[in-house]
Design goal:
Radius of gyration of chain A: 13 Å
Low-confidence stretches of chain A: none
Largest sheet of chain A: 6 strands, mixed
Number of helices of chain A: 0
Helix content of chain A: under 10%
Helix content of chain B: under 10%
Oligomer: heterodimer
Shape of chain B: globular
Structural class of chain B: mainly beta
């Protein structure tokens, strides 16, 4: 059974800092890995999708990497802003296209 | 872009009530829809997968008679929590994929906060 772990559970940084969120998964037989953002009481916004054959994806200030063999992914956020404050979820897509989620990292960017 | 609409956003009702939650794809045909449940400070847990026109596939531990899922059209799936009890209080979120898009980002609704008194 796939298990997804996100470290740290919470992170607080001053505005402008670069930061890295970590995600690990136990079964490397994946189709893809997604990073989502969830604001309090809201649904999910897809940030980046990395296919299993890819090593990284970039969108604006966000960069996600994938090392399938070691079961790890990182989400790098450059020049953090208060508007980046949210919970970031990592999810692994498997053969049935269902997603297995981590518990998330709650990010607070302090002005 | 693709949008998934989920309704209602919040429900507060008495124990024993049945509650229906709707998930609609607004600009694409959702051949597959997923229903998740999220408890406070926990990850999203997949409850069931529904394909248009067929019975839903439930995850282990999810009671199919309690959580009724109907995916009768390519734009609508419903989740009915029958005879809801306080332990069913949670955040329910649906997501959808279109035909030929199963390896693309899933589109999520905004979720439904269910509170059973």
């Amino acid at each position: 059974k796939q298990e997804v772990t996100q470290i740290p559970a919470a992170l607080s940084v001053p505005e402008g800092e670069n930061l890295v969120l970590n995600c690990s998964f136990t079964d490397s037989a994946i189709y893809n890995l997604q990073w989502f953002r969830q604001d309090p009481g809201k649904g999910l916004t897809s940030l980046l999708l990395i296919q299993s054959s890819q090593r990284e994806q970039t969108s604006g200030r966000l960069n996600a990497s994938l090392d399938k063999s070691s079961g790890r992914s990182t989400l790098y956020i450059a020049a953090s802003q208060p508007g980046d404050s949210a919970t970031y979820l990592c999810a692994v897509g498997a053969g049935s296209y269902q997603l297995t989620f981590g518990k998330g990292t709650k990010l607070s960017v302090i002005p | 872009g693709a949008v998934v609409s989920q309704h209602p956003s919040r429900v507060i009702c008495k124990s024993g009530t049945s509650v229906k939650i709707e998930c609609r794809s607004l600009d694409f045909q959702a051949t597959t829809m997923f229903w998740y449940r999220q408890f406070p400070k926990q990850s999203l847990m997949l409850m069931a997968t529904s394909n248009e026109g067929s019975k839903a596939t439930y995850e282990q531990g999810v009671e199919k008679d309690k959580f009724l899922i109907n995916h009768a059209s390519l734009t609508l799936s419903t989740l009915t929590v029958t005879s809801a009890h306080p332990e069913d209080s949670s955040f329910y979120i649906c997501s959808a994929n279109g035909r030929g898009q199963l390896n693309q980002p899933q589109h999520f609704g905004d979720g439904t906060r269910l509170s059973i008194l």
